[in-house]
Design brief:
By secondary structure, this protein is an alpha+beta fold. It has three helices and seven strands, in the order αβββββββαα. The protein has a five-stranded antiparallel beta sheet. A two-stranded antiparallel ribbon has the order 4-5. The structure holds ligand K1U and zinc ion. The site of zinc ion has 5 residues, from helix 2.
Length: 167
């Protein structure tokens, strides 16, 4: 397994649209394992393939306290949504920035697993927030895009300055 580099906002590659996964094979399973290792090391509770510059529709998520409930979702789709909830979100591609975002409270998700089998499940709370945040990444959307233009500009300026200082 290997740690992968996480793209940092405002990298334009974060806005690429991820393509559907056509075949679940050993290469994909290796990428999923590397993404999980990268997420746990960060540490984070989710990671989308987009964030490691792989533009395919796969995410990893683990919102458990014990870090023992890893979910790998391939071609995830939200098939139903209900309610609204506001949560504070962070993003491994936007380090040090935490902002409130309104999203659906309950979602029903359809996805394939690492055996290529399709399944559906309901999610709420942090799991629902995290899955919506990660699917946004696959669609080229970063959570700061829910904020005002002014806040987005401030975040962009702050992160570009940080990136220049650590070069
Ligand atoms: O997509 C990402 O960058 C991962 C992101 C997922 C997320 C967290 C919170 C709300 C929405 C989406 C993160 O994991 S940010 C780091 C974080 O929130 C966290 C890190 C360690 C323990 C608990 C949370
Ligand atoms: Zn993110």
């Amino acid at each position: 397994m290997a740690l992968m580099k996480i793209l940092q906002y405002p990298d334009p590659r974060l806005h690429k649209i991820a393509q559907p996964v056509a075949r679940v094979d050993d290469d994909l399973r290796r990428l999923a394992a590397d993404m999980a290792e990268t997420m746990y090391a960060a540490p984070g509770v989710g990671l989308a393939a987009t964030q490691v510059d792989r533009h395919i529709r796969m995410i990893v998520v683990d919102v458990s306290e014990e870090k023992n409930q890893l979910m790998t979702l391939i071609n995830p789709v939200i098939v139903a949504k209900d309610g609204e909830a506001v949560h504070e979100e962070g993003c491994l591609s936007v380090p040090g920035i935490y902002e409130k975002v309104t999203r659906a409270e309950l979602i029903r998700v359809r996805a394939q697993n690492l055996e290529g089998e399709s399944h559906e499940f309901d999610a709420e709370g942090l799991l629902a927030v995290c899955i919506q945040h990660e699917i946004d990444h696959l669609d080229g959307k970063v959570f700061v895009e829910y904020l005002s233009r002014l806040k987005q500009d401030r975040i962009r300026t702050k992160l570009l300055k940080q990136q220049r200082e650590t070069m």
